[in-house]
Amino acid sequence: MKDKRIISLKNPNLRKIRNEMRELLILARNTKRGKIRSEMKEISSNEEGDSIPMDELTPSQLKRFRELQRLESKNKDIGRKSICLCYNCGKSDLDMYYNYPYRAWFCVECVNFLKSAHSKMRAKKIRGEYTCDPNDEFGQSFL
Ligand SMILES: [Zn+2]
Fold this sequence. Notes:
With 143 residues, the chain is mainly alpha-helical. The chain has one domain (5-140). It is built from 4 helices and 3 strands. The protein has a 3-stranded antiparallel β-sheet. The protein starts with a strand and ends with a helix. Bound molecules: zinc ion. Residues 86, 88-89, 91, 106-107, 109-110 line the site of zinc ion.
């Protein structure tokens, strides 16, 4: 995949279909995430619903709990870095821009804002008005 790429749809009907497909994928991800979290809670809670300390779980319970943690983390990353959601703001209904250095998609609104903010910070830094060190790596990744 190219370093930087915008996936843009002009046709309102195609936008609607795209947005509905994204919502469906997000819903499926959230459902799976809910099942994972529910099983984690079931393993790590006693019958009264109180938390069981990790060192009191059986080895098989602990092994399963760790598997579920890995699954949840992977699922979270897939969701956050997919084209379905903006990595920065979480919107799902806009054209998306792929930022290779971060291996993530950002909505066009965030990209425009981040580009503008980075340019303003750079100009202030050049004029000596900005004494903090801006996160150049992140801002420059959008230029
Ligand atoms: Zn965004």
